[in-house]
Amino acid sequence: MHDASLIVFTGIGALLLLLPLPLQWRARNSGTLLLIMWLFLGNLLVFVDCIVWWDSYSNPAPIWCDIVTKFFVGLPVGISASSLCITRRLVMIASSSTVAISQSKKRRALFIDLLLGLILPMIVMTLHYIVQPHRFDIWEGYGCQTSTRYSIVSVFTVTLWSPVITIIAAIYGIIAIRLFLSRRLQFQTILKASRSGLDNRHYIRLLALASVDIVLGLPFTLLALVKDIQQRMTYPSWQWVHANWSRVDVYRADQYMSSGAFITNLTLPRWLPVLLAIVFFLFFGVSTDAIGEYGRWLRWLRQRCGFDFVSQKQELPKVIPKLGSTIVQPLGSDTKDENLGEEELLKDGGLFEPQSSMRPVVSKRVAVAVLVEREVA
């Protein structure tokens, strides 16, 4: 099974996310940094899996699959929680008064962001073990895949978290939009007073990014929830579910290509980080600040690689006096040539002819040469 397009776009998506990373790091926006982390790892792991299992369904790296499958469980929760962190921060800034946000509030907001965007997905990864019937699956062409026994237990431990968090993020987004529209006249002053490092453009860009993530992510999470409910089975007991936990199931391409579950189980979840990575780059990777950052990188690289051009001294052009010009000699200079040759005077095609020779008029310290000419008909 070969899916070259997924390999190409996951690689491109991972690289695109690294370009605006320095700017976001300096901005200290924890929500966008968490989103970059989840999307980058999502693209990178899918990229590696598709290459390693390009045309194979063997099990060469079981520890790798243990890590990847748990990450895939927490990935939807991490993306949804990152969007919630972004919209929550926008509401906090827009609803603040002209008084700057204190450092204690900023630390508390950072702690809540880390709790939502990092700790909560790890908790969901841990809870997944409750409904994990065997170690993992390997699908030819796609690599490691999570194994889950769909039941009411899996709904509350795994699949329900992401859509609920996404809906909460959407509510915060609506509140942020209302606050922006109601206070848009003094909004720039509010942003400056909050000392958040944002202006109107950055605020709108963050709000648009979170909105697109919600619009794209909510259908995926709801689809997973509906699939979980439709395919639910009983959960007899812990011992029964984990009786053969060390088993690894493998699937050849000809076994699942004709199945409709192939799209919902494998293709769509792997393309979501790619789409969101491209959206993130379009919002933050082509801005004026980002383009200026790329220019600084290129200049640094050119200097490091020895491509810096050395400026050469430019010689001033020599001025040759023509007919009709007045020549002033510097102070204290000697005037040796009292007469100019006719060749110089007739340089412009013989239109002018000297009427008198050029003689210096000398005062105490200044010598001025005067040339009088008349036109010949």
From TrEMBL:
The species this protein belongs to is: Kwoniella heveanensis
| Gene Ontology biological process terms from the UniProt entry | pheromone-dependent signal transduction involved in conjugation with cellular fusion
- The answer to whether the entry has keyword Transmembrane helix is yes
Q: Transmembrane stretches, by residue range?
A: 6-23, 35-55, 67-87, 108-131, 151-181, 202-226, 271-292
What molecular functions are annotated in GO for this chain? mating-type a-factor pheromone receptor activity
The keyword Transmembrane helix is assigned to this record: yes
What is this protein's record name?
Answer: Ste3
Membrane topology classification: Multi-pass membrane protein
Similarity comment text for this entry = Belongs to the G-protein coupled receptor 4 family.
Pfam families, alphabetically? STE3
Q: Name one GO cellular component term.
A: plasma membrane
What does the UniProt keyword field contain? Answer: G-protein coupled receptor, Membrane, Pheromone response, Receptor, Transducer, Transmembrane, Transmembrane helix
Q: Where in the cell is it found?
A: Membrane
Superkingdom, natural source = Eukaryota
Q: What is the lineage of its organism?
A: Eukaryota, Fungi, Dikarya, Basidiomycota, Agaricomycotina
